[in-house]
User: Fold this.
Amino acid sequence: MMIFKAADWKFYLICLIMFSCALYYTLSTDSANVSAEYSNKYVDIRIDSVIESTADVLQDQTQKESVDVPDLVANENLQADIASNSQEKSGSVQVFSDLTVDYKVHVLEPDIEGILIAPLTITADGRAAIRRTWGAGLTNRLFFLVAKNNGSWPEDEYNLYKDIVLIDLEEKWGRAVAVKSRVWFAISSKYWTTKWAVKTDEDSYLFYDRMLKQLKRTHADYWGRLFLHSVPYRQNTTKYYLSEDMYPRDDFPPYHSGVGYAVSLRARQCMAKVMPNIIYMPREDVGTGLMIEACKFHATHAGNGRVLLNYRENYVKDNLVVHHGLKKKGEMDDYHAKVLRARKA
Assistant:
């Protein structure tokens, strides 16, 4: 039997440590090289996709790398999105059947980090105001959901900015709004792996960094200004009217105000699956709540003062995430100027 002296043990221990260090250095160097190579390709794609023709650049990059990238321009039918008189019915309740809605969207970067944001807009002026204020710098994260206006789309604007989702139906409160929201959450789960997608309005001012901070802190699947124990309007005196035939339940599920709420990727993926079985709801915010309820996800309240439903001219506090109600011409720009001044103060 061999007997090792203490000095021998020290020698072998030193050798083992030196070998481990050499192995670690080799592996870490290889890993760093791989990471740097991937990072450089990713940055090249980002820069080129903004400067040059996105489709040509990414298709060429895909051929070089032999990786699977989603279709860059999607022209497909999305099942279960328009309710009409020709739809199937379950009793007296309208359900989404096999009807489809066409949509077209530029998919620039499928794997960006952070948040995808979709304001439901009507006017070109409203979209321009968002691009030059809170949406500035959110290239490939900001997409406008646009339906037809008197039978036509803003095709030139679509091709110029590549930030518009075109939806094939006429712009109208209720039907178009509900469809826009459903299309957004379905395609944002199909073509992007971004952790959160946000639906907001044309007259909302959104603080991107603050929202991302809140979502990372709460790990929310469904985040926004929470409404609990709400009931449907049964008097036919408002656009929010819902007859018992349209919506037989006596109350709404927990839902977030449509002025600005976020939905996680896993929640969106579930929503896309349950959409065909959810009754038609012209109130898009309640419709999202119904899908979240069917998916058994929890609604996370944003907290007091983080989502304001009505415009307050001088409210620019640090806890504010979404400020709604900037409807008049120039209000978005004026409020943005106040935000910038407050940051410098």
Notes: The chain has two domains: 9-65, 76-235+245-344. Residues 6-51 form the longest helix (46 residues).
